[in-house]
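Make up an example, fold above all:
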Amino acid sequence: MPLDPERARRRAEVAKAWAQVIGRTAYVPMTADEMEQFLLDQVHILADMLNAELFDPSPAIEVGSALVQNDFTGPESLQCTVEILAAALLLDSTEPADREQANKVVGLLSNLATGYATAIRLRTLDQQEHIKQALLKSKREAERRERAANDRFEEVFHASAIGMALTDMAGDFVQTNSALAHILECPPDELAGRNIRELFPPEDADDVVISYREVTEGIMPRIRERRRMVRHDGTIAWVYLVISLLRDANGVPAYHVTMIENLSELQALQNQLGQQSVRDMLTGVANRQHFQSKLDAVLEGAGPHTSLTLLHVGIDSFSVINNGLGHVVGDRMLQVVANELRDIVADHDAVVGRVGGDEFAILLEDGPGVPHYQTLIDRINERLSEPTFIGDTGVAVCVSIGVAQHTGRAHSRLDLLRAANSAMRRAKAVGQRQWEVHNVHEDAEQKELLALTAAMPGAWEMGELDCEYQPVIDLADNRVVAVEVMLRWDHPTQGMIGHDRCRDMAESAGMSLTIGPWAAMRACQDTVDRGNRDVMLRFRLTEMQTSDGNVAGVINHLVAKTGLSPERMEFALDARAVVANRGEAQSNIQSLRDNGVLIGLHEFTGSQTEFALVEDEEIQSVILAGSLVTKRPDLREPDSLVAKVTRDMVRNLRQAGAAVSVVDVPTTQSAAWWHALGATYGQGDFTGLPGDLDSVLPERPAPSVNGA
C-alpha cells in the first residue's frame, strides 16, 4: 500500500540521520545522496516487516549483510545502526507501542546484527583465503624465479665465450666452464681440483692473490685488470680479469667469481692495426700519414745547418700495366718498386713511403756518405729498368722524379711535399724517365697560375669575366671584315688578364664547355644590341670545345635566342683535335656545315694530314698557327727554306679554295709581307689592342669573309 506522506517523511528523516551518524564511522564509497537512498531502502524493509500482519524478522539478516557488503563496517557502525533504528522503528509502527511491538523491534535488530556479524565473518574468511592464495602464488613465483635464475646462470656460465671460474675462499676451483679450458688450451677435466694461483706465472702469482684479498676484505668491490695466464703448453695468454665476491645468506664471503676474457687475438689485432697505421699494406713501406709524420719530426728537430733531400717518384704510364696485364701484375710491380727504393737507401738515414697510388717518396738527411740526388736517380733508373718476370712476362717500369732540397728548420712540411710533387709533375710533362729539381721561381709562377685556374669558376660566377673583340683585317685594303670573340678577366688583384691565359686556364679547369657557350651568347647579343647584325663573328674553339658533341646544339641555341644569321658566324676548329679525331671533332665538321656557319681550322701547321682535311672536307677558312708567324719568316731571306715552305703552303691553301688568315701579326710591315705571300686576312698587334665592339668596329660593318 502507498505510504501516507507523513510516514514517508519520517522514514526519510530516519535515513538521513542514519547516514549522518554511520557515515562518520566508516569510509563508504558512495555519495551522500547514494548513501541516504541505500539506507532509506533498508528502513523501508525493516519498517514493512514490523508492520506486516505475519511478523517474520529473518529478512533483517539480509539488511545486516547488505550493510557489510556496502562497506558500512566501521568499529561503531553496528552500534550506531542499532541506536538509530531502535527508536525509529517504534515510531513507524501502526500499532500502539507496547511490549509486543518492542519485542518485534528487538527481533528485527537481533537478526540484523546476526546478518551483520555473519557477513563480517564470511568477509574475513574470504580475505584470509585471498591472502593465503596470494602468499602461495608469491612463494611459487619466487621459487620459479629462483629456478629460472639458476638456469640462466648455468646457461650463461657454460655457454659464455668468456672464461668463468667459481672458486672457494682458498682459491680452489669449484666450477669452471669450457671457455676457460679453451683459453688455457687444456681438457676441461684437468682444471678440477686445481688452485687458480697455478694458472698465473710464478712472478705474477703474489699480485693475483693480493687482488683476490682486496675483493674479499671489501677494499675493492671488484677488480678489473690485464694479466698473463699460463696455457697448458706453457705459453703465455694475455687475458682481462674481473674478480668479484659471492656471499652466503648470512653475508659471509663464500666464493669468488672470476671472469676471464682472452685478449691474445685482440693483442695480435692491435699489433696488426699498429702496423697498418704506419705501413702501406701492399708494399710494406711507410704510408702517407706516417711518412708525413716522419717528415714533421725531422723538420722540427732540424738544426740551422740540417740539409734534407726529398725525392718524389712517380711511375710513368702505370695504367699500361694495370690495363694491359691486370691489377695483380700492377700490384706486384708496386711491390718491386718499393723494395728497390728501400734497398737503394738501406745504408742511409732515410724513409721510404708510398704517398699515392703509383707514387713514392724518399726522405734523406744529407751528410757524409750520403750520395748526391743525381747518383740516387741513376741507381733508381738502373734498378727499375731490369725486367721482373711474372710468369713468362718480363715487366719493367720507368719513373719520373721530382727533387726538393731544404736546409734549416723554417719550412713547412706541406710546402716541401708540394715542391717535390710539383717538380715531379714538370718532369712528367717533359716525357718519361725524366727528373726535375725544384725551381723556386718556376714553382712560384706555376703556383700562381694554378691558383688563378682554381679561382676561375668563382670569377665567372661573380661576373669578373667579360668578352672583348679583336678586329680581323682584310690585308688588301685594311678593312675590318670580322671580329674574333675573346675573353678577358678583370682580376681584383692581378689586374686585366688577357685572352690567351684565360683560354688556357679555362681549358685546364674544365670550364671551356661552360664559358665558351656563354661567351658566344654574350658576343651575339652584343652584336644584335649594337645593331650590327651584318658583322662577322669569329670563334676559335679550344681542343675541348672542338671535341664536344654539343657544338651544333650551341649554334642552334645562339640563332634561336638572338636571331643572328649563322652565315655571320665563323667557327674555327682546333686542327690538332680534328687530326687526332678526339671525341666528336671530325663529326663536328659536318654538323657545322649543316648549321650553315663558316667552317674553319686554326692552329694549322701545314702537315699532310691537315692538307687532306682541307681538301676532303672543303674547309673554307684556314688560320695558320701563331708559331708560324712568331718565327718571323718575313725577316728571313726570300729564298730561305722557311720562306719558301711558307709561300708554298699559303699558295696551296688558296688553290684549295680556303681563305688564309694569320694571327699574332706584330707590325704593319709583317702584315704587308703576308699579304704579298697570299694571305687574305690578318689580326694581331698591328690592328691595335682588343676592346669592345664600339672601339674595334667602324661605323659601317664590313662585308663577309666569304667574299674573299
Summary: Residues 700-708 have pLDDT under 50 and may be disordered.
